[in-house]
Design brief:
single chain; about 190 residues; mainly alpha; 2 domains; about 45% helix; disordered N terminus; disordered C terminus; binds zinc ion
Length: about 190
């Protein structure tokens, strides 16, 4: 039964995302499907500064250095990326839905922070992108690898069922699962 495996999977998800490099590798193709792109001038080929996990654009301009958080729902949040990723994972995988209470308890953050995260992550799932509205270039076209295309237009309860894998259609599963499975670290 899927139900009995869920807590174990959650622990594995927390462990998996606790490595900031794994977190980054996981997020790069979702945030930048076309490859790392400077959020200010849209140039490709930025230099990666591994020690700080940021990039430096090859063009000279203000804010030449940028992190993966720029223009995403994670921007201006003091919550580290690994917790964001686990919260995303929880929303995608808990079949009965999750409350900010549960997220706060599991991630060791305040309920207010958890509520804020849930709100943003749900919005991201709705739009199919971690991009914020109104960022440079506007809303990026929904990435089909993030949420199975059809899931976006489904009724909420159907969508929840599909996304958690209760339906027959695996295509509608969220990428969080797909990438985790590809990484070979976590299997729900
Ligand atoms: Zn640039």
């Amino acid at each position: 039964m899927k139900h009995s495996k869920e807590p174990k999977a959650l622990i594995e998800a927390i462990r998996y995302f606790s490595d900031p490099d794994i977190c980054l590798q996981f997020l790069i193709p979702i945030v930048w499907p076309e490859g790392v792109t400077c959020p200010h001038c849209q140039a490709k080929g930025a230099h990666f500064i591994a020690t700080r996990r940021i990039w430096r654009c090859k063009n000279r301009h203000d804010k030449q250095q940028f992190s993966i958080k720029v223009d995403t729902i994670f921007e201006d949040s003091p919550i580290p990326l690994d917790k964001w990723m686990v919260a995303t994972w929880m929303i995608a995988n808990c079949k009965n839905g999750i409350s900010s209470c549960e997220v706060a308890k599991d991630l060791g953050i305040t309920q207010k922070s958890a509520w804020f995260m849930l709100h943003r992550v749900r919005l991201a799932m709705h739009t199919g992108s971690f991009r914020k509205f109104g960022g440079n270039g506007g809303e990026v076209e929904a990435d089909e690898t993030f949420i199975g295309g059809k899931a976006r237009n489904m009724h909420k309860s159907v969508k929840a069922r599909r996304i958690t894998g209760q339906g027959h259609n695996n295509i509608d599963k969220v990428i969080v699962m797909g990438v985790l499975e590809r990484g070979g670290h976590v299997r729900a």
